[in-house]
């Protein structure tokens, strides 16, 4: 056999399991049909939270996620950021009924119970805020609120979390191929024997052999299993987020949508994120796009507590598919967020293990459990897991951003972004600037992208396409749709990867098209005018898409 295990999917479960398997000495191949994190992982809310919502129905999910959140903070301290949430009491103080007061009290008790889990993830205990305190913290809230409780959570750059797990897996000897699709899982005599794959960029086809295949293809799992004669039950749920052009609050705000579902508005980098919807999805996972309806549903909910968001420019609408465990009956919100490892033996595919459900926040624990099962399927003796102890790349010796800015010719916000994305590896990036000061050019002031960062990512982070840089260092993600950064990033990538001018042009069009697909659902009025300006400016520089 070529490998001990073939892992399908480069989301957080695939890359996390590849890392764990490689660290425990297995020969690993990972295939990802596009780039790391393009599925649910990178399109999640990116919260390394405990899931307070699941505390009543799935207490185990909350406990697992909180414990794993603590471990993720230990192995990637640079990549996490604290998000203090406000949970306002929305009924008015004047005329509040006994029932209203009971509801406030119940909320306080509920959040207070969640406090018991907070030490696991270095979270601060909740606080009760009076109306005055609430409005001092967040004056943009609609008037007349009675007060709030606070709730401490953590966010992460989920794309980079996947990349760091992939890089770590590679560092431990795994082979990882992006833009390579598993076409079918091959089985013989009721046992898995490998995978047939195709490199979608070169067209190269081949077969890789292994006695165990770990299927972490998220919402694509059921179709892949069907194509291979196996079955993976799942109830995929579509979730849409909006990005607003600026920070509307320095706090996350928890609020209710028109139908009573819980939603949030939270700060992220220099923007705000509004999320999320949750609707059953029966379509093709490759054909996923937000609709105007979903955009309006989210904006209506956000404006119910933060009326100012109506003045926002929505810069993107992006979506992913939850890989929820199948159940007939409950509505989407009520589905369990537990994870399951589905054994293919029953459908004649012994050695095929598929993961369904689960959370980004507990990905490490899910990967640990999957690796234990993979070792058992291989008939190997147990090997201790170390993924909670060994830092992810850049997670050790994280430099102080302010000190870095003083020691190098870069602005403090740029240094902060660099350290946030790369941790200890920021030093290597700044060495590139020392060698060639032209690489100290800031490509995007919003995102603080350095030319040297682009070069570093292309050289060391498995970049095959220009659009991979959206996920590595946010090239062309910001409000200006790549006007400042896209062309220079393309030239830097072309020089590193030896692209012809035709390839460079095609890659640039593809990058800009990826951004266009996220802006299309939010175009109206002034935003349409903005889009025309962006197109015009790109066209004037000879780029069309
Ligand atoms: C809207 C939304 C919000 C969420 N918010 C949170 C949150 O805040 N916190 C939290 O803890 N969890 C959250 N989740 C859940 C979390 O994102 C998922 O549990 C997790 O990301 C699933 O990871 P995965 O690796 O299993 O799947 P995915 O990330 O979907 O990865 C599957 C990968 O498989 C690849 N693939 C598909 N077919 C093939 C093939 N044939 N060959 C090779 N590769 C293939 C895809 O390209 C994809 O990259 C959210 C999910 C959604 C959708």
Would you spell out the secondary-structure blueprint of this structure?
Layout: E1 5-8, H1 12-23, E2 28-31, H2 59-75, E3 80-92, H3 98-114, E4 128-130, H4 131-137, E5 145-156, H5 158-171, E6 175-177, E7 180-188, E8 191-199, E9 205-209, E10 212-215, H6 221-227, E11 237-244, E12 252-256, E13 262-268, E14 271-275, E15 279-280, H7 292-305, E16 314-322, E17 339-343, E18 352-357, H8 363-377, H9 401-407, H10 412-422, H11 426-435, E19 442-444, E20 449-450, H12 451-460, H13 468-473, H14 486-497, H15 501-519, H16 526-540
Parallel strand pairs: 1-2, 1-10, 2-6, 3-12, 10-18
Antiparallel strand pairs: 3-5, 4-5, 7-8, 8-9, 11-14, 11-15, 11-16, 12-13, 13-14, 17-18, 19-20
Helix pairs in contact: 1-5, 1-8, 9-10, 11-12, 12-14, 14-15
Bound molecules: flavin-adenine dinucleotide.
What does this protein look like?
The protein has helices at residues 12-23, 59-75, 98-114, 131-137, 158-171, 221-227, 292-305, 363-377, 401-407, 412-422, 426-435, 451-460, 468-473, 486-497, 501-519, 526-540, and strands at residues 5-8, 28-31, 80-92, 128-130, 145-156, 175-177, 180-188, 191-199, 205-209, 212-215, 237-244, 252-256, 262-268, 271-275, 279-280, 314-322, 339-343, 352-357, 442-444, 449-450. With 545 residues, the chain is an alpha+beta fold. Strands 3, 4, 5, 11, 12, 13, 14, 15 and 16 form a nine-stranded mixed beta sheet that branches. The mean pLDDT is 93. The protein binds flavin-adenine dinucleotide (FAD). Flavin-adenine dinucleotide binds next to helix 1, strand 7 and strand 16.
